[in-house]
């Protein structure tokens, strides 16, 4: 019997495996669609330091209230826009590993909106409209479909319009199957949490029932955008190394090490190649399989590399995170902290934490946890996340005089070139000891500040109560004793009360 | 005989109480005027500051004092309550109104001064007694329990509306209730030459029926168990002002003994007060000796009774020969008897035989 092997395209592969990309069912799919498109838009703005204005509209096309139904999704942004010739492949073709450099991006799967477009097409058999401009003279408009089997865009039509207003940005619109009724709360929560980590963005969402959700920009500054960087040797696998060799033009191993890896200079390259027992003058293209494996193992084990460079990362920053929390939750107290960069397996990462108390934060009987990875909110599988573990199993909240029945929210953001997700679903972060350690220390820092705040608040509260008691009883003693002594005028107790207050001020 | 010398004693005492209350008000007022947090000092009533004074034969408070200052967050509320209670007591006294402990508890609420519970308000009243050194009956705060009096004593009311009116206490065969009006009355005339205090109501009624008041020229007082302080105070006045000897008849058990003892030597709870006891009163029966001598029907002492006897043995008030002897016999015979036990010899035996024998014996 002969087995038939069939080659499948990447698009086909994702079509068959859409579960892992977050398109399990119509409710999860519309959530993922909006999320992918919004994150695309935010990235498109931030790389060029444009304050994002993002408009999302979801309207129902099917004429009944049955769910799931057919919906039209439209997302507009004022980002940098795409060059006209890139548009078809940017939205109509699933591409793999074309990058040999690394950059911190939001996109969970590196697929951008392509998976959303693909899902829309297979559920509604309809086309996608793209309008984009770089802010130059032309605006280009495309009608596209995707040839899933061959992984190619089909251009149905393309027009250019003149761009007198010098508009820049991208508008995408297509039909898709969705269950909005079920997805609604997650979508709103997603937008709200996005607003927390991007308080510099205007996010507007018009839902199918015409409800208008607006998350306003409250701060004009933006985080430093992430920059591209070469990989750190500790984080390289055999396949990556092979690809690097294929695209490289350098002729010696020493040059190869210096050019394609971060923090490797002349001396380090020489020491390393010596350690790996590979000649520095050897042509990378001449490495055999054994040598490549040996090289990768040596890269993992060699201790002479400098730690990974974190300057390529783009954390939110304490001012922005604080502003975002303040804006969306209006707490009585908020404190945020940013750890210095750390690294796991050759990937730099930075942990930022926040703690918020009181105000609009509800009492839930537990600590509300907000998780973010590379500036995107993580809404699913909370209890499997390392932050959950740190908050609920490791942190000793009693030490900070905080009890779980108080209104308390904790924020954990981790940014990295590669987020250590535990599963392909990419909804929760693995409990790697380096990451756990950073989260724990960052949380302790903000918890200490909360403790100080609460102690002071309690003290003031106690003093206020104390003063209240004096203010309640002293006048009574004055009045009773005046009557008992048959006096006309009550004694003046104001100086005594003033003394009490003065005493309080000193103690504060 | 007519009691000229006691005529003004009630009024005089009332005047002193009102003055003391107002002085207390002055003290608070002056402290406030001087920019001082008002405070007061009173003897500590804690158990280790209560001592037995063998000279005056009652419990007294020692040298330790407590200070209540409104500058102290924990004291300001009880001090305010104390001042209010003084004001309330002053109103009661000056307007000749009487009140119960329960009334005080409720009246405070009108001044946004509510007490958490009656325990708290009772404590504050005891504080006021301690500060003023007058029992609450002197400022017209009475407990609920009442006892009764019967005998040839004529009293003259001082109560507004009854002022000057006289009443002979043989007017009603159930006895007259010893309430605020009677407590505040002057003694106008007395034909009796002794006082007999009786623990049990049944026996009190029998004594009235058998005309003990005539046969023995006695004023009869029903203590209704442990005598209320107003009754103890009245017994003292009868003893001191009218110079009448007081004989106490109780059940023949450690509890009955103690009812007599509290009348004679006062209680530890009232160690902050004077003039509530009658040191010369005599416990006249039923003794343990009587149980033996009269072969009275008796019950076995319970464990609790025996325990109580051991306590009494250590009590400094029980140092007297009679007490020691009777405790010893109780422990020996391990028996107790009620006053009614004499009925085995007929209903009138106690009046015809026992009482005259006892009175004769005690008069010696």
Observed structural traits:
heterodimer, A: 508 residues, alpha+beta, 8-stranded mixed β-sheet, 6-stranded mixed β-sheet, B: 364 residues, alpha/beta, 3-stranded antiparallel β-sheet, 17 strands
Description of the structure:
The complex is a heterodimer of chains A (508) and B (364). Chain A has 13 helices and 14 strands. In chain A, helix 5 packs across helix 10 (318-329), helix 8 (266-276) crosses helix 9 (289-301) and helix 12 (433-484) runs antiparallel to helix 13. In chain A, the strands form two sheets. In chain A, strands 5-4-3-6-2-1-7-8 form an eight-stranded mixed sheet. In chain A, strands 9, 10, 11, 12, 13 and 14 form a six-stranded mixed sheet that branches. Helix content of chain A is 38%, strand content 20%. Chain B is built from 13 helices and 17 strands. Chain B has helices at 9-33, 76-94, 101-107, 118-132, 180-183, 201-209, 212-215, 229-241, 254-265, 288-293, 303-314, 321-333, 349-363; strands spanning 39-43, 50-53, 58-61, 65-69, 99-100, 141-142, 148-150, 153-156, 166-168, 176-177, 186-190, 194-198, 218-222, 246-249, 282-285, 299-300, 335-336. Chain B is globular. The model of chain B has no long low-confidence stretch (mean pLDDT 90). The A-B interface holds A 466, 469-470, 473-474, 476-478, 480-487, 491-493, 495-496 and B 21-22, 24-26, 28-29, 32-33, 35, 37-38, 70, 73, 76-77, 79-80, 83-84, 86-87, 90, 111-113.
């Amino acid at each position: 019997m002969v087995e038939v092997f069939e080659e499948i395209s990447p698009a086909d592969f994702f079509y068959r495996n859409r579960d892992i990309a977050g398109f399990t069912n119509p409710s999860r799919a519309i959530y993922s669609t909006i999320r992918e498109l919004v994150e695309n838009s935010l990235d498109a703005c931030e790389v060029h330091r444009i304050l994002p204005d993002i408009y999302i509209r979801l309207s129902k096309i099917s004429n009944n209230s049955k769910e799931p139904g057919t919906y039209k999704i439209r997302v507009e942004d004022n980002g940098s826009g795409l060059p006209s010739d890139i548009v078809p492949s940017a939205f109509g073709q699933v591409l793999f590993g074309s990058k040999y450099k690394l950059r911190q991006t939001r996109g969970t799967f590196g697929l951008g909106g392509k998976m959303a477009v693909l899902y829309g097409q297979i559920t509604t058999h309809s086309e996608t409209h793209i309008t984009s401009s770089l802010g130059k003279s032309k605006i280009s408009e495309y009608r596209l479909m995707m040839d899933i089997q061959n992984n190619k865009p089909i251009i149905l039509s393309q027009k250019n319009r003149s761009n007198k207003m010098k508009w820049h940005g991208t508008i995408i619109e297509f039909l898709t199957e969705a269950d909005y009724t079920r997805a609604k709360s997650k979508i709103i929560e997603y937008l709200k949490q996005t607003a927390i980590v991007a308080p510099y963005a205007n996010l507007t969402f018009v839902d199918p029932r015409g409800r208008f959700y607006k998350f306003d920009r409250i701060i004009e500054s933006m985080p430093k955008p992430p920059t591209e960087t070469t990989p750190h040797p500790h984080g390289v696998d055999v396949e990556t190394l092979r690809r690097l060799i294929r695209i490289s033009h350098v002729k010696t191993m020493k040059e190869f090490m210096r050019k394609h890896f971060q923090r490797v200079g002349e001396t380090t390259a020489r020491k390393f190649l010596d350690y790996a027992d590979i000649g520095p003058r050897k042509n990378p293209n001449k490495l055999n399989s054994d040598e490549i494996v040996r090289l990768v193992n040596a890269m993992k084990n060699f201790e002479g590399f400098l730690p990974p460079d974190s300057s390529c990362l783009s954390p939110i920053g304490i001012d922005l995170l604080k502003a975002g929390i303040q804006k969306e939750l209006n707490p009585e107290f908020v404190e945020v902290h940013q750890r210095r960069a750390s690294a796991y397996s050759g990937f730099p990462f930075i942990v930022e934490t926040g703690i918020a108390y009181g105000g609009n934060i509800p009492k839930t009987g537990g600590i509300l946890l907000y998780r973010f990875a590379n500036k995107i909110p993580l809404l699913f599988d909370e209890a499997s996340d390392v932050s959950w573990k740190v908050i609920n199993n490791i942190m000793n909240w009693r030490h900070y005089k905080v009890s779980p029945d108080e209104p308390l929210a904790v924020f954990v953001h981790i940014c990295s070139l590669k987020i250590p997700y535990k599963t392909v679903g990419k909804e929760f972060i693995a409990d790697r000891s380096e990451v756990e350690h950073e989260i724990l220390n960052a949380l302790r820092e903000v918890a200490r500040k909360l403790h100080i705040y609460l102690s002071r608040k309690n003290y003031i509260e106690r003093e206020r109560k104390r003063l209240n008691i004096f203010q309640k009883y002293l006048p009574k003693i004055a009045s009773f004793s005046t009557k008992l002594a048959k006096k006309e005028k009550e004694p003046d107790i104001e100086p005594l009360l003033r003394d009490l207050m003065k005493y309080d001020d000193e103690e504060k | 005989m007519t009691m000229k010398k006691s005529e003004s004693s009630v009024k005089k005492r009332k005047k002193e109480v009102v003055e003391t209350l107002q002085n207390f008000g002055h003290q608070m007022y002056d402290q406030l005027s001087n920019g001082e947090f008002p405070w007061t000092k009173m003897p500590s009533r804690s158990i280790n500051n209560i001592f037995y004074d063998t000279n005056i034969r009652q419990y007294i408070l020692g040298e330790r004092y407590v200070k209540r200052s409104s500058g102290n967050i924990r004291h300001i509320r009880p001090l305010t309550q104390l001042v209010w209670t003084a004001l309330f007591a002053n109103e009661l006294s000056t307007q000749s109104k009487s009140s119960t402990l329960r009334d005080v508890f409720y009246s405070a609420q009108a001044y946004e001064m509510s007490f958490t519970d009656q325990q708290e308000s009772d404590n504050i009243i005891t504080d006021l007694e301690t500060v003023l050194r007058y029992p609450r009956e002197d400022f017209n705060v009475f407990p609920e329990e009442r006892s009764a009096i019967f005998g040839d004593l004529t009293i003259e009311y001082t109560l507004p509306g009854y002022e000057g009116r006289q009443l002979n206490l043989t007017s009603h065969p159930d006895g007259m209730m010893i309430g605020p009006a009677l407590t505040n009355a002057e003694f106008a005339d007395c034909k009796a030459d002794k006082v007999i205090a009786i623990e049990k109501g049944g026996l009190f009624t029998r004594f009235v029926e058998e005309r003990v008041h005539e046969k023995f020229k006695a004023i009869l007082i029903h203590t209704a168990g442990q005598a209320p302080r107003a009754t103890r105070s009245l017994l003292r006045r009868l003893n001191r002002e009218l110079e009448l000897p007081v004989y106490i008849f109780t059940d023949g058990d450690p509890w009955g003994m103690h009812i007599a003892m509290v009348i004679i030597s006062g209680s530890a709870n009232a160690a902050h007060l004077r003039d509530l006891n009658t040191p010369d009163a005599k416990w006249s029966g039923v003794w343990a000796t009587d149980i033996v001598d009269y072969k009275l029907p008796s019950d076995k002492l319970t464990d609790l009774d025996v325990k109580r006897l051991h306590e009494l043995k250590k009590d400094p008030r029980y140092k007297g020969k009679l007490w020691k002897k009777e405790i010893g016999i109780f422990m020996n015979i391990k028996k107790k008897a009620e006053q009614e036990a004499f009925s085995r010899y007929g209903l009138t035996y106690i009046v015809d035989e026992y009482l005259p024998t006892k009175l004769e014996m005690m008069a010696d």
